[in-house]
Amino acid sequence: MPRQRRVVEDEDEEETTQVQISDDDRAEESGSDAAGPSDQQLAKKLIRYALACEYSRVPIRREGIKERVLGKNGRSFRRIFKLAQRQMRDVWGMEFRELPMKEKMTLHEKRQAMKSNSQPRTGSGAFALSSTLPAAYRSPAIITPSRVPSVEEEATYTAFYTMVVSLIMLNGGELSDQKLQRYLLRLNADRNLASEKTDLVLKRMEKQGYVVKQTEGLAAGQDGGDQATTWHVGRRAKEEIGLDGVVGLVREVYGHPENEDFDKKLKSSLGIKDWPSAAVEEENAGSAMEEDG
């Protein structure tokens, strides 16, 4: 694993990735499913590669796996991936989860997509690792922040991006830049993020897929033109934090209130009718741990 988090490449390149049954996959399906010694070694190599990517918050891309792990064994992708997935679940308590595809947000992007004659994608071709441990074992007392660069810096960054993502989701999935800046000012973000400027942290979050910054207007990019900048939830945040993570954060901030009016307002802000199952499981697990304590 790297000793230090590195700057992540922009995820826009994933737009060129097509996830469908290729000729290589068809050739692989005609082969044997038996996992030999070489397959085991490739699966271990894939796991090491995935852990390194996840540590740096870099998407685990299908093309990257073929290039850096499989090499000349590219036709064995599905078989090796399946074997690595099983080992991830059995040994590491994690699994590969495919990230959602990048959404077309601006009118220009939607028009370009309609004009495109390319075949529709069936997936993003990018993955992230997600814990499969029961909620009771995901407590901060058990899973502590990384020591690199430091426990305090990692905990602060995790709390910050979770808070920003929650604010966006609580505002209907879209938050203007002016409103976000007002929130950050009220939270004294500049003081609480003493190691970095807030703008730099937001840029890092954008590169790592936690948020998407969208700027458009009638005369975008021209002198004197009006531009509207909005923030949206990124693909990584949808997988890593999700709706259940936002619900858990809000309940924690408000002290887990047992109040129907509170629940009603929270559901309305998030635009949901029922609580996500993971949030209910986490709430029950937390209550059980408090009783045991």
From TrEMBL:
Residues 1-39 are annotated as: Disordered. It holds the Pfam family MAGE. Residues 46-246 form the MAGE domain. One of its GO terms (biological process) is DNA repair. One of its GO terms (cellular component) is nucleus. It comes from the Eukaryota. InterPro entries: MAGE, MAGE_WH1, MAGE_WH2, MHD_dom. Gene3D superfamilies: MAGE homology domain, winged helix WH1 motif (1.10.10.1200), MAGE homology domain, winged helix WH2 motif (1.10.10.1210). Coiled coil: none annotated. This is MAGE domain-containing protein. It comes from Escovopsis weberi. The lineage of its organism: Eukaryota, Fungi, Dikarya, Ascomycota, Pezizomycotina.
